[in-house]
C-alpha cells in the first residue's frame, strides 16, 4: 500500500484552493444570490424604488405565453444543436483518425473554427445565407427553394442551429480525437480479423469505448446551447422573426436590458439556472448509468 500523502502545513491546502474559491464566489455565487434576491422585487427601470413581491414575478413569467414559447424554442434548439455538433464532430474525428499522411494538418484545420467568437460565427453564416447578398441563398433560389430566414421562422431556426453547431464542432472534435487515440488498436484489429465490418466495429467496439467522452460532451453541449449561443442568436436573428428563435437566455436579455423589466428578467434567470442544474443532474443520474469506464 502506498503511503498517504500529507501536507506539512495545515493551512497550505486552503491557501492553494483559495484563489479558485474566490473566483467562484465572486463570479458565480454572488451574482446568483443577487439574481435570486432581485427576482423577489419589483423595481423601476432606474433601480430607484423597489418593493418586495415574493413569488409574483415567477407567477407572471410562467403564465406568459411568450415565455412558454421560449421554453419550446430552447428545447428544440438545444437538442438539435447538441446532436448535430456531436454527430458531425464524431464523424470527422473518425475520418481524420484514418488519415495517415497529413493527419496533424487536418486536425489543426478542424480546431481553428473554435477560436472564432460567437458573434463573428453568427455573422459569417448570416452573410452566406443572407437572402439579398448571400452566396448560398442565391444557390438555393437558383434551385427553386424560397429562402428568407429574416421572414421565415423555421428557416431562421435552422440557420441558428447550423451556425451554433458549426461553432461547437471543433471543441467536440478535439475530445473525440483524444478518445479515439485512447482506444487500443489491438481490439479493432482483432475484430477485423474475426470478420467484423467497419460499421460493426464502430458500433460494437469504438462507440461503446467512447461513452465517457460522449457523456462529457453531452453535458458540455447542453450547457453551451443554453448559454453560450447568445452571441450567435443576437447576431443572426435577434430572436426573430416573431420570436421564433428567442431562447430563454435571449428572453432574459430582452426583458432585462431592452425592456427594463428587471424583476421578470431576474426571475427568468433563476428559472433558467434551475433548469440547467436539473438537466445536468438528470444526465448524471440516469445517462451516466449507461456509461462504462474501462
TrEMBL record:
The chain crosses the membrane at residues 12-32, 71-96, 108-129, 156-180, 201-220, 266-287. The keyword NADP does not apply. It is a multi-pass membrane protein. Pfam families: BPD_transp_1 (PF00528). Keywords: Cell inner membrane, Cell membrane, Membrane, Transmembrane, Transmembrane helix, Transport. Belongs to the binding-protein-dependent transport system permease family. The complex is composed of two ATP-binding proteins (UgpC), two transmembrane proteins (UgpA and UgpE) and a solute-binding protein (UgpB). This is sn-glycerol-3-phosphate transport system permease protein UgpA. It comes from Tianweitania sediminis.
Amino acid at each position: 500500500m502506498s503511503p498517504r500523502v500529507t501536507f506539512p502545513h495545515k493551512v497550505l491546502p486552503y491557501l492553494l484552493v483559495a484563489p479558485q474559491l474566490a473566483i467562484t464566489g465572486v463570479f458565480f455565487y454572488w451574482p446568483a444570490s443577487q439574481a435570486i434576491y432581485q427576482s423577489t422585487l419589483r423595481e423601476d427601470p432606474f433601480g430607484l424604488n423597489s418593493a418586495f413581491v415574493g413569488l409574483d414575478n415567477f407567477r407572471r413569467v410562467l403564465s406568459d405565453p411568450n415565455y412558454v414559447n421560449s421554453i419550446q424554442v430552447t428545447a428544440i434548439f438545444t437538442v438539435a444543436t447538441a446532436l448535430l455538433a456531436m454527430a458531425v464532430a464524431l464523424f470527422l474525428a473518425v475520418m481524420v483518425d484514418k488519415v495517415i499522411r497529413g493527419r496533424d494538418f487536418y486536425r489543426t484545420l478542424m480546431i481553428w473554427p473554435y477560436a472564432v467568437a460567437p458573434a463573428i460565427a453568427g455573422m459569417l453564416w448570416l452573410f452566406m445565407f443572407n437572402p439579398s447578398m448571400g452566396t448560398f441563398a442565391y444557390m438555393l433560389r437558383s434551385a427553386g427553394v424560397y429562402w428568407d430566414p429574416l421572414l421565415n421562422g423555421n428557416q431562421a431556426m435552422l440557420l441558428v442551429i447550423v451556425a451554433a453547431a458549426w461553432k461547437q464542432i471543433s471543441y467536440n472534435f478535439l475530445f473525440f480525437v483524444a478518445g479515439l487515440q485512447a482506444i487500443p488498436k489491438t481490439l479493432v484489429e482483432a475484430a477485423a480479423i474475426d470478420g467484423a465490418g467497419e460499421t460493426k466495429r464502430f458500433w460494437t467496439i469504438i462507440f461503446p469505448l467512447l461513452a465517457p467522452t460522449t457523456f462529457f460532451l453531452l453535458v458540455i453541449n447542453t450547457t453551451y446551447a443554453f448559454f453560450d449561443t447568445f452571441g450567435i442568436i443576437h447576431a443572426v436573428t435577434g430572436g426573430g422573426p416573431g420570436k421564433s428563435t428567442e431562447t430563454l437566455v435571449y428572453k432574459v436579455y430582452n426583458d432585462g436590458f431592452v425592456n427594463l423589466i428587471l424583476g421578470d428578467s431576474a426571475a427568468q434567470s433563476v428559472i433558467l439556472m434551475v433548469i440547467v442544474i436539473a438537466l445536468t443532474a438528470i444526465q448524471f443520474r440516469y445517462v451516466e448509468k449507461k456509461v462504462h469506464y474501462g
